[in-house]
């Protein structure tokens, strides 16, 4: 079925409305060799760029596939309405002054109403470039060129998009799309549309914020199914002010942590700079995702070899040693004075000998690394003569063709590789990567995406809006623990009493040591308030503690002390305005805030995701038998987290925050030593105590992934 954006993105006819900026659209489409019809529309001019002008939409010879509207905001609304009524394919709305300004909200709604079923980009949007067809609905300069296959770049910043077209790194670009205000058509629809073009090799996203998480998720899921790699440069990493929350969990994860979790879930690799953005897209376009994280490196300099080793380590790449057989094959191509290793410094003994270089390069390529990197800098052509690098390049091309290996030629500095050289290498199936650091980051991204394509595909996100017509309610610790017990989470044995004598009797019945706490929904953080007494080992200690706490005019919770835990964790659920409820797993107690040792998982979560989140904590060695100490019962920890996530899904719009802090992980079992629930709930709502609700969601998520038991 034809995508609704196909006519706009791949037009056979273009109408251009307005003068000034709009005239550049006509000129640039002509310069790029657009083969379709171009129809300038202007009420007073006879010609623009030598083409005859039409006075209005009604005067056009046919309904245009694509239109660029470069007039004021009110006139834009009128023209959009006329184009829609005529059955046009879509339009770029260049004008600003809509939702992004104080008086523009209603005008933007009028614009959307006028479009009907016709798609529009913008408003406040630079438009689009289709370099494959030479179709430019673009009112400014650009630095791109025609191509047959290439990457698609979708950007929320028009200026960033312009700058990316100016790259001289050899990256072929099929499409440049800017989103503007996304009044009607958003980034998700653009991703979906370019995925319908089989000539698009990878997608790069510049993102300032998300409009519709579900739509983005659906589009990215399509990319994953089609195995089209996607990378994202998402701005806004720095910490923003967090709203005040009751639980620890809700204050742990910033919005960017949730974005990172979303990207990981959707197999979108994140880059942090425009340099990395371009180099990564170039590697993905040329060679596609890597099968693994292994990397081979060779250069004629020990200094370069050491730099590659350091940077590979930083990026988590596997610079594995050569096997004995591989080392013998490489050694056979080099003088005895060369130390055979990975990274390989092959020295300059054979520099200038093309046959010898080809054999060395081929021997390394035959080692089967996920990516083999040849560090090679060409002398600057304006001041220097060739120093043998041309012969080395020819040797590398021959070796790559012979072995079919995945080869990247890496310049140590970005400026030490020309665009002409990059073009040449890509034609030969070799990735030209400019700058060691960006090259290694690109290699890591290619491996991450390749691994993700073969990984378990997660279920769709559970997105639940908060129930807004009920008041917040904080559930006290005792009631919260009863809820958790009903849903399969272990808690210490205990009871609630109202007098000192009752507390003493209960402690004696439980057996010492015990914990004594005040039970009150008004006291969320009991340790800070001094209403928790730990390690009470006798009747006298319990009596004294109870007398101290009874003055708070609240019931007392007496529990068995969980003795000799391997370590403490925090498990929690909090709500985000875009991603809904999410699960947090971190180091327990105050350590999670001091060390920022926590991971977030969007829901629904599998056992495999939960297990990996635990093992990726900085504190994870404490739970796996650090220095011969006992290991925690990680199966019980995963069970607790899985049950908590399923309970959150069952509660849906009613749950606001939930803390288990700490969850005491023991050699056998894991116990919720403290619990807090904040909800939007009324007594008439579905009972918390009915575990059948969460069992449905647990069963829906599917069988356990990974090994824990």
Structure characterization notes:
This protein has four domains: 6-235, Rossmann fold, CATH 3.40.50; 288-453, 3-Layer(aba) Sandwich (Rossmann fold); 493-560, Dna Ligase, domain 1; 567-701, ATP-grasp fold, B domain (D-amino Acid Aminotransferase, Chain A, domain 1, 2-Layer Sandwich). It contains 24 helices and 30 strands. Helix 15 links the parallel strand 18 (407-411) and strand 19. The protein starts with 5 loop residues before the first helix and ends in an 8-residue tail after the last helix. Mean pLDDT is 91; it is low at 238-253 and 689-709.
CATH class of the largest domain: Alpha Beta
CATH architecture of the largest domain: 3-Layer(aba) Sandwich
Query: Structural class of the helix and strand makeup?
Result: alpha/beta
Number of domains: 4
**Fraction of residues in H or I helices:** 25-40%
Number of H/I helices: 24
Number of strands: 30
CATH topology of the largest domain: Rossmann fold
Mean of residue pLDDT values: 91
Instruction: List the strand order in the largest sheet.
Output: 9-8-11-10-12-13-14
* End-to-end gap: 48 Å
Strand proportion, as a percent range, falls in 15-25%
CATH superfamily annotation of the largest domain: NAD(P)-binding Rossmann-like Domain
Low-confidence stretches: 238-253, 689-709
Global morphology: flat
Looking at this protein, list some descriptive labels.
709 residues, alpha/beta, Rossmann fold, Dna Ligase, domain 1, seven-stranded antiparallel β-sheet, 24 helices, 30 strands
């Amino acid at each position: 079925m034809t995508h609704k954006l196909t006519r706009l993105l791949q037009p056979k006819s273009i109408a251009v409305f307005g003068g000034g900026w709009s005239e550049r659209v006509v000129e640039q489409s002509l310069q790029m060799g657009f083969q379709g019809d171009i129809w300038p529309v202007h009420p007073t001019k006879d010609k623009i760029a030598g083409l005859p002008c039409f006075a209005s939409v009604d005067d056009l010879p046919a309904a245009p596939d694509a239109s660029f509207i470069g007039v004021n905001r009110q006139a834009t609304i009128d023209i959009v309405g006329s184009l829609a009524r005529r059955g046009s394919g879509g339009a770029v709305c260049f004008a600003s002054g809509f939702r992004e300004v104080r008086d523009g909200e209603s005008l933007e709604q009028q614009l959307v109403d006028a479009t009907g079923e016709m798609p529009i980009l913008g408003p406040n949007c630079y438009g689009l470039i289709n370099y494959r067809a030479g179709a430019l609905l673009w009112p400014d300069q650009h630095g791109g060129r025609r191509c047959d296959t290439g990457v698609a770049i979708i950007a929320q910043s028009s200026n960033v998009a312009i700058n990316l077209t100016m790259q001289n790194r050899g990256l072929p670009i099929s499409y440049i799309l800017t989103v503007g205000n996304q009044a009607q058509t958003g980034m998700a629809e653009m991703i979906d549309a370019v995925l319908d073009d089989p000539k698009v090799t990878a997608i790069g996203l510049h993102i300032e914020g998300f409009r519709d998480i579900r739509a983005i998720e659906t589009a990215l899921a399509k990319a994953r199914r089609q195995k089209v790699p996607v990378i994202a440069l998402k701005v806004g990493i720095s910490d923003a002010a967090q709203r005040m929350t009751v639980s620890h969990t809700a204050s742990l994860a910033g919005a960017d942590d949730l974005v990172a979790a979303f990207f990981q879930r959707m197999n979108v690799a994140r880059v942090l700079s425009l340099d990395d953005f371009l180099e990564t897209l170039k590697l993905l376009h040329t060679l596609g995702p890597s099968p693994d994280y292994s990397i081979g490196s060779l250069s004629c300099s020990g200094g370069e070899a050491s730099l590659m080793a350091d940077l590979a380590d930083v990026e988590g790449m596997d610079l594995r040693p050569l096997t004995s057989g591989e080392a013998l094959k490489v050694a056979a191509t080099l003088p005895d004075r060369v130390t055979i290793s990975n990274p390989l410094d092959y020295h300059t003994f054979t520099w200038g000998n093309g046959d010898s270089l080809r054999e060395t390069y081929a021997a390394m390529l035959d080692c089967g690394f996920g990516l083999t990197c040849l560090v090679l800098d060409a002398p600057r052509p304006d001041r220097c003569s060739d120093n043998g690098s041309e012969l080395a390049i020819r040797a590398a091309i021959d070796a790559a063709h012979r072995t079919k290996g995945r080869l990247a030629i890496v310049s140590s500095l970005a400026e030490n590789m020309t665009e002409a050289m990059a073009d040449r290498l890509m034609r030969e199936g070799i990735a030209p990567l400019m700058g060691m650091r960006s090259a290694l980051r690109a290699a890591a991204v290619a491996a991450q995406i390749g691994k993700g394509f073969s990984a378990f595909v997660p279920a769709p996100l559970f997105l639940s809006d908060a129930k807004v017509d009920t008041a917040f309610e904080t559930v006290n610790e005792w009631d919260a623990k009863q809820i958790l017990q009903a849903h399969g989470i272990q808690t210490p044995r205990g009871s609630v009493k109202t007098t000192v004598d009752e507390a003493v009797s209960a402690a004696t019945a439980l057996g010492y040591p015990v914990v004594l706490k005040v039970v009150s929904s008004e006291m969320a953080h009991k340790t800070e308030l001094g209403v928790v007494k730990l390690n009470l080992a006798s009747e006298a200690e319990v009596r004294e503690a109870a007398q101290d706490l009874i003055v708070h005019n609240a019931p007392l919770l007496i529990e068995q002390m969980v003795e000799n835990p391997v370590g403490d964790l925090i498990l929690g659920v909090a709500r985000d305005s875009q991603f809904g409820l999410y699960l947090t797993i971190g180091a327990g107690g105050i350590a999670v805030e001091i060390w920022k040792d926590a991971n977030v998982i969007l829901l629904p979560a599998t056992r495999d995701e939960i297990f990996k989140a635990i093992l990726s904590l900085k504190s994870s060695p404490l739970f796996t038998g650090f220095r011969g100490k006992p290991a925690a019962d990680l199966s019980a920890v995963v069970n607790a987290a899985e049950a908590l996530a399923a309970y959150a899904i069952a509660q849906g719009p009613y749950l606001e925050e939930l803390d288990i802090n700490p969850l005491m992980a023991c050699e056998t079992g894991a116990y919720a030593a403290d619990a807090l629930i904040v909800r939007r709930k009324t007594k008439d709502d579905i009972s918390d105590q009915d575990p059948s609700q969460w069992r449905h969601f647990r069963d829906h998520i599917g069988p356990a992934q990974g090994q824990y038991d």
